[in-house]
């Protein structure tokens, strides 16, 4: 029975992911929202920076509500994961340097989808009777705005399946990476990380948002600082690398062999999968933020897509593309990134990548558990439900660190695909509400007047 179910799940995943159904859906909706918002990523980029750097004027003394910056860090933590390293490596390995250009384009398009879904999450959020803060997300606006609780239930279940599977993917990636470099026993590694996760998750108050608020800026800054050093060290060949990306992106070299399709599709697919825009994940954190206007959080979450793709993913790509071709010739996968980093900064490079991967993956694990909170409450509004899922997630995390379970990984892909389709079906008809909120924000001095929810 399990074998038959696994075949069915793998078959559906192949249809959704490898046949590019989800890619087309995400790209189409992103382009639609970009047009409807009058190219918001370009018009409001300066405002995104202003909003995330402004002092929060809304007091968070109403329970466990979080600041807009904490919500940004939670969503960024889940976006900035193994995909920013392994995903970019895969894109370049299969699609070549040109795939990075299309990842940039997708980030511009996807940021509009992130704005719509996160603004909706803010508009339809509600008070959490247990914590006193806020909660919300796609499941909530599906019930409140569309009057379709069944749709919200299906989204919540799909998300919980996905996030449980992702916790295994992250733990397996961490233990494999550390073991390959340091030869430390996997059981010891995952035991320490599981205990650390339990300390953060359990206690008087959930510490996820506060931990990620400190961890995300540190890990991103550390990674980008090393990459900046590498770029400056190779500044003379930087123009050549950028020209190579553009030439490959438009098939100047690939057109003869018919490889342009692989270049475009790899860039589009990896970009969409990395930044999560449109999947419905980030709104689960966005709804918890206590801000003076829904659009502010929409803009901040939109900025998160830029951070994920234009900064972190580009940084990974630059490390590989600036390396001498004789060093990286024939290499694929994480070995390509490790050898490229070693070329630039010496033998410490492999240890640096292992450490960064550890931080990225562990922060992703914490981020997706924060996403799970409002969805568990949507299905079963008792505190015991939250505690049970935490234990379940930690068990999955622990087991994933010891061994790779292909069926669980397939379930994660299935859950992500299903929740994305459900979310897109909801935000398309509701996008007019988010756009009206944007118009209100722009007419009232860029959100200086408090929005009444």
UniProtKB/TrEMBL annotation:
Its main location: membrane. The keyword Transcription does not apply. One of its GO terms (cellular component) is plasma membrane. InterPro entries: Na/Ala_symport. The lineage of its organism: Bacteria, Bacillati, Bacillota, Tissierellia, Tissierellales. Belongs to the alanine or glycine:cation symporter (AGCS) (TC 2.A.25) family. It is a multi-pass membrane protein. Keywords: Cell membrane, Membrane, Symport, Transmembrane, Transmembrane helix, Transport. Pfam families: Na_Ala_symp. The chain crosses the membrane at residues 20-40, 85-105, 150-166, 187-203, 215-232, 303-323, 343-371, 391-408. PANTHER family: AGSS FAMILY TRANSPORTER, SODIUM-ALANINE, AMINO-ACID CARRIER PROTEIN ALST. This is Sodium:alanine symporter family protein. It is found in: Cell membrane. One of its GO terms (molecular function) is amino acid:sodium symporter activity.
